[in-house]
Amino acid sequence: MREAEQKTVQKSRMNLTLQRRRRITHSRILCRVRFENMNDQPRLPLRSDGTAADACRPPPALVSPRPFLRWAGGKTRLLQALNPHFPTTFNNYFEPFLGSGAVFFHLRDRAFGRYFLSDLNDEIANIWRVVQSHPGRLLREVDKYQGLDTEDEYYAVRERATPRSNIKRAARFLYLNQTAWNSLWRVNKQGVFNVPWGARPFRGIDADSLRAVTRVIHDASIENIDFRQALAKPRAGDFVYLDPPYLPVSDTSKFSGYTGKRFRLADLEDLADICKDMTQRGVTWTMSNRNTPVVRELFGTAKMTHFTTRRSVAAQNRRNVEPADSPEIIVTNRAPC
Ligand SMILES: C[S@@+](CC[C@H](N)C(=O)[O-])C[C@H]1O[C@@H](n2cnc3c(N)ncnc32)[C@H](O)[C@@H]1O
Predict the structure, then answer these.
(1) Model pTM above 0.85
(2) What is the spatial distance between Cα 213 and Cα 324, in angstroms, rounded to a whole number?
(3) DSSP of 224-256, one letter per residue?
């Protein structure tokens, strides 16, 4: 009897162990299945700085990308006048005097190929590259300037050395761009920014608009180069929009330029030669400029359209701006449709 009892206990123990083993194996399988399924789950969208976007946050409303800088000579207000002089489609798009890129944002949908954006101003090239690769980190740096709206705070930022980090440098540039007098970027011969306070609050930058720009330029080539270097690349079927600095109206003009190097007559002559060469290569180009005898003479063989616009120019007291008539010219080698 005792022997029989012992056998029964042993059997039930064995059964228990077997059941336990089965349960463990089963839960391991379940666990693996669960983890495998997790891998199949759609992943959280990644921000461009590599961090995962917040799953609970609703997807951002569709915002169309637009200029994130106010730039002297920016073409936003002239887009309607310029539009008939742009081709409807083309292969690659080139803009070698980029600034705020107002025309780029207007034309980007018409390109089948890539965008080649460049400017000799290194602050411009830097901020475009930072917007392209580190929008999240830029937004965090820009936040640090919120509330610095007094004259003293402006001059404190202006006098501080330019940060070495490209992201911090882009944030400082954006702050100065929004708060400097007339949003002007002017440097002295040593390359030091010297524009007075503009008495305007710093608004920062809207996160969704910035991300919309990042999406559009993710694949663009953005370079800090002279137009001569940039314009060696376009091929037949490509389109180039040219918006060089206008030559000063007189030798005593106050605006000393966007970079330490002024744009002079010799530069415009080079540009005219390059345009002739591009025409021979089958590249379509359109240029904006001030309507002057020099421009008409240098680009004489191309199609020209004249019009007048109202521009903000420095007033006598240099603190204010006042509207003035500005004679403009659009020059293009584009064949009329
Ligand atoms: C009239 S602004 C362009 C404005 C632009 N279209 C916009 O809508 O904002 C001229 C630009 O040419 C750049 N620039 C000046 N000299 C240059 C050069 N030699 N090569 C390339 N870019 C130059 C300036 O830094 C400036 O951003």
Answers:
(1) no
(2) 32
(3) ---HHHHTTS--TT-EEEE-PPPPPSSTT-S--
